[in-house]
Write a structure and sequence with these properties.
By secondary structure, the protein is α/β, with parallel strands linked by helices. Helix content is 29%, strand content 23%. It is built from 13 helices and 17 strands.
Length: 421
Amino acid sequence: MMKYLLKNANVFQDNEVNKKDVLICGGKIVSIGVSISHDGDTNVIDLNNCYMFPGFIDVHVHLREPGFSYKETIKTGSLAAAHGGYTDVCAMPNLKPVPDSAEHLKKELDIIKRDAVINVHPYGAISVNEDGRELADLDAMAKDVIAFSDDGHGVQNDDMMRAAMTKSKKLGKLIAAHCEVNELLKGGYIHDGEYAKAHGHRGICSESEWGQIKRDIKLAKETGCGYHVCHVSTKESVELIRNAKKDGVDITCETGPHYLVFSDKDLIEDGRFKMNPPLRSQDDMDALIEGIKDGTIDMIATDHAPHSLEEKSKGLEKSAMGVVGLETAFPVLYTKLVKEGVITLSELIALMTERPGKRFGIETGLKEGMDANLTVWQLDKEYTVDPEKFLTMGRATPFEGMQVFGECIMTMVKGEIKWKQ
C-alpha cells in the first residue's frame, strides 16, 4: 500500500481550517502537522492550498445493481460518488432481486465486493419484494446491512410498520422510511401547486408525505425504534419532525440538494425536473432551509436515482421519477448555501459527514489513527454543470447549466486514491 504525504492543504478539523500536511501510511492517517518530513518511499502530493474534508457520506443512493444495470452499476455509481467527494454511500434496496433475505442480499454484496470503488453500505428491505405484505427476513440480513427501508414505497399497513420497528429495535437497526400514502397520490407526478394548476398537470399533495410521517412518529414513540425519514420535502413534515424531537422520539431526517435550491416555480417541461417527492412550493423550500439552520434536518442526501436517457426524455408527465446528484451535491450546496451566507462551510460539512456518520454508524473525520477517507476540493474553481462530464450513467439533473463553485481534486478511501483530477 502506498505511503502519501499530502502537503499544504487547508485541512478541515474540529470545525476549523488550518494549513497542514497529512501523512498517510497503511491506509491510515499517521500524522497531521506542519512541515512533516518524509522518506524516499513516500509519494508527495502538493495540494497547493486546496481544501481537505473528511469523505462525504450519502445515506440515500440508488446504484441500480443487481437488476437494472442499464441505468447504473455499482462500479459506475461508486466512481461517480468518488468524483463527488463521497467515500461512503448507502445503497437503497429497490433492486431485482430485492434484498429481502440473506440469499438475495448476497447477490448485491458479491457485486459490491467485486466492483465498488468506495465504501458501499447496502440497505435491507423492510418487506418481502418491498410490497408491504410480509416482513422481510430482517434477522438474517441485520449483520450485513446499514438499516432497513422499503424506499420507493411507503409502508401502507400500520401493523406491518409496527412489526418492522419492533424487530429493528431488537436488532439495533434504523428504519429509514420513504413516506407516501398511496391513496392520496391520485395519479399525481409533480407538486400539487401553482405550476400544476397553470399547466394542467396532476399534482401530488403534501399530505401524502406528512400524513405517513405523522403515523410513523407515533409508532416510533411506541416501539422506541430509531427512525429516519427519507427525502423530506414539505413544511408540515419539518414541523412534525421538529416537534417529535422535542418529544424525545428517536428520529432523524434528510433532505436533498434540489429541494433546497428549487421550488415548483422553477419547473420546466423536462424530465430532469421530475423526482419523488417532487419539488414543492417556495414556502416548503423556505421551511426546509429553516430546518437545516435550526438542526431539525440532520443531513443532506442526494437520492441519486439514475435512469436511461429514454426514460427521462418524456417530459414531466411520463418520464421516470428520479435525478442524479452525487457529482453536483457539494458544488451546488457550497455555491447556493455557503457562498450566499445561508449556512457556514462548517455546517455544510457536518450535514455531509459528521451527522450522517453518527446516525448510521459510519466512521468519519480527519484524525490521526483513523482510516484515510478524505476528499480534496478547489473551492474557488467556477464552472458550468455539464452532465456529459459525469461518471454516472445517468444524465438527468435539474442543475444542468448552473454556474457553481467547487471542483473535486481527489478522493481517497482507506489510503487509496479512488478519484484524482
